[in-house]
């Protein structure tokens, strides 16, 4: 039941952020689904396999791939799906801890959380980079296969 509740909150949070940044209405539902798919990969990875950094990279990679597919289906730019879908993976809790420990003077814990934020942000960037790389690789392979099939 807790997982179902979290899925609903991820979906609604993505829709809400999409409304704030003026995502077209026809893209809101699909953007929420893209976000839920990425968050589920993140959730199951953290629960059953490993740490947050790898989970963020895989979740962002899947958001990138699903966002590309959604952008082709809806004929809209991919950023319309990627940016709102990324909201559940942003390390807001760790960033808050950095500010809290800096304000209270506990610089050791602040440094530890800052390192986590930097690595998670890097994993998010790498996830998007690899999803775009996979898309470009797919398009090139598709183009080469279609060239080989044409008779001369």
UniProtKB/TrEMBL annotation:
Which GO terms are recorded in the biological process aspect for this UniProt protein? succinate transport
Q: Name one GO cellular component term.
A: plasma membrane
Q: Write down the membrane topology.
A: Multi-pass membrane protein
Signal peptide residue numbers: none
Pfam families, per database record: ThrE_2
For this UniProt record, give its keywords in alphabetical order, as a comma-separated list: Cell inner membrane, Cell membrane, Membrane, Transmembrane, Transmembrane helix
Q: Where in the cell is it found?
A: Cell membrane
The primary location reported for this protein is: membrane
Keyword check for ATP-binding: no
Coiled-coil segments on the chain, per record:
none
Task: Name the residues that span the membrane.
Answer: 6-23, 28-45, 51-69, 76-93, 113-139
Q: Where is the Threonine/Serine exporter ThrE domain?
A: 6-133
Task: Tell me the PANTHER family matching this sequence.
Answer: SUCCINATE TRANSPORTER SUBUNIT YJJB-RELATED, UPF0442 PROTEIN YJJB-RELATED
Concerning its family, UniProt says: Belongs to the ThrE exporter (TC 2.A.79) family.
Its recorded name reads Threonine/Serine exporter ThrE domain-containing protein
Q: What organism is this sequence from?
A: Apilactobacillus ozensis DSM 23829 = JCM 17196
């Amino acid at each position: 039941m807790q997982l179902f509740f979290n899925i609903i909150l991820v979906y609604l949070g993505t829709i809400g952020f999409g409304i704030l940044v003026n995502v077209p209405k026809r893209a809101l539902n699909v953007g929420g689904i893209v976000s839920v798919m990425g968050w589920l990969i993140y959730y199951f990875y953290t629960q059953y396999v490993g740490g947050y950094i790898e989970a963020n990279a895989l979740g962002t990679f899947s958001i990138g791939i699903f966002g590309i597919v959604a952008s082709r289906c809806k004929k809209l730019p991919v950023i319309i799906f990627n940016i709102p879908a990324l909201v559940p993976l942003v390390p807001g809790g760790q960033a808050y801890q950095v500010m809290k420990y800096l304000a209270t003077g506990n610089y050791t814990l602040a440094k530890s959380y800052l390192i986590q934020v930097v690595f998670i942000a890097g994993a998010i960037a790498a996830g998007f980079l690899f999803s775009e790389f996979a898309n470009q690789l797919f398009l090139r392979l598709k183009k080469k296969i279609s060239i080989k099939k044409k008779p001369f």
